Amino acid sequence: MTDAALHIHPTGHDHAACVDEALETAETLCVERGARLTPLRRRVLELVWSSHRPVGAYDILGKLDDGARKPAPPTVYRALDFLIEHGLVHRIESMNAYLGCNHPEQSHTGQFLICRECGNVTEMDDEDVRQTLRRRAAEKGFEVRSQTVELVGLCANCKAG
Amino acid sequence: MTDAALHIHPTGHDHAACVDEALETAETLCVERGARLTPLRRRVLELVWSSHRPVGAYDILGKLDDGARKPAPPTVYRALDFLIEHGLVHRIESMNAYLGCNHPEQSHTGQFLICRECGNVTEMDDEDVRQTLRRRAAEKGFEVRSQTVELVGLCANCKAG
DNA sequence: GTATGGCCTGATACACTGTATCATACTACA
DNA sequence: TGTAGTATGATACAGTGTATCAGGCCATAC
Ligand SMILES: [Zn+2]
Ligand SMILES: [Zn+2]
Ligand SMILES: [Zn+2]
Ligand SMILES: [Zn+2]
């Protein structure tokens, strides 16, 4: 966490707490599931959580370079695959970027609110939306298995400011 | 249109009619708007419409190679940009691919039903869905400007078959 | 008719994103 | 310990998209 990253956060909140909580939840979850949150995966998760803006795989890759080791792309993508599989991270399709999930307990498909002003993305986990999509698609004979919903616009902060 | 392409179409319909209608609508629309549907752009639109499956930019690029001229990537991307700008083509974010729009008259953001079995994609233009998304996001203080909705599942054909 | 300016296309080079493959290291368990 | 399964390192490459400059086409103005 750099100071530079701090000021872009939605409400000037204590983002270190976000990160801590995310990492702890991840630990717990992985233990429960017998999944291995290795140091690398943990580090990647931490880097994804470095802000509330989606992070590119190659950004992560760059930050993994701690002088001695310079990981290669597959290293990051494999870690991301793991994290996504366990619901700890979401991929934002329209941005080719990755975002930490803040309620990974129950597997889910969220809806993402992408602010075009500040770049912050918040996840909306709305059952009404899910149902509506499923129902309307079903009326066309289509059985939905997974949903990608990404909305671009203005967040509350940026509307106010 | 090859025979090979025919059998993947949703209902064994006359796809040539789809293409003809799409091209004619595009012509009309561009005339109305004073936009120039050049031979290249028309050809790219035709190629996008070669099936009801999204087409990659480089697939189009390959098919533009008519022996003599071998266009470069920017040629295709510029044509696609034009077509997207005029609502004639949609980009499917989760597939990095492009799909012809079958009702480009009113500019819109559709919802896309992607069959994971046959690969066909149909566009659902549901105002209820749009409203629900806008409303639910607004309840979180978020003002929606554009929507990306891509649902993966099974189409009516593939469920039956 | 020529000139000017805007738009469209050609062409080269490059940036960004993601994967295939094989080798090595580590872990868990028998 | 031995062994199978998993995780990471490393190299190379595939797929997707863009920056930039040059040339060509067309319309309007002079
Ligand atoms: Zn935070
Ligand atoms: Zn914002
Ligand atoms: Zn058709
Ligand atoms: Zn299908």
Description:
Two copies of one chain form a homodimer. Chain A is an alpha+beta fold and 161 residues long. Chain A folds into two domains: 98 residues, Arc Repressor Mutant, subunit A (Orthogonal Bundle); 50 residues, Dna Ligase, domain 1 (2-Layer Sandwich), CATH 3.30.1490.190. Helix content of chain A is 43%, strand content 18%. In chain A, a hairpin with a 4-residue loop joins strand 1 and strand 2. The N terminus of chain A is likely disordered. Chains A and B meet through strand 3, helix 6 and strand 5 of A and strand 3, helix 6 and strand 5 of B. The complex binds zinc ion (4 copies). The site of one zinc ion has 5 residues of chain A, from helix 2. Chain A binds a DNA duplex (30 and 30 nucleotides) through helix 5.
Secondary structure layout plus pairing:
The structure is a homodimer of 161-residue chains.
Chain A (H helix, E strand, L loop, with lengths): L2 H4 L8 H19 L5 H10 L8 H7 L9 H13 L3 E4 L4 E4 L10 E5 L5 E4 L2 H12 L4 E12 L1 H5 L1
Parallel strand pairs in A: 3-5
Antiparallel strand pairs in A: 1-2, 3-4
The structure holds zinc ion (ZN) (4 copies).
Chain A binds a DNA duplex (30 and 30 nucleotides) through helix 5.
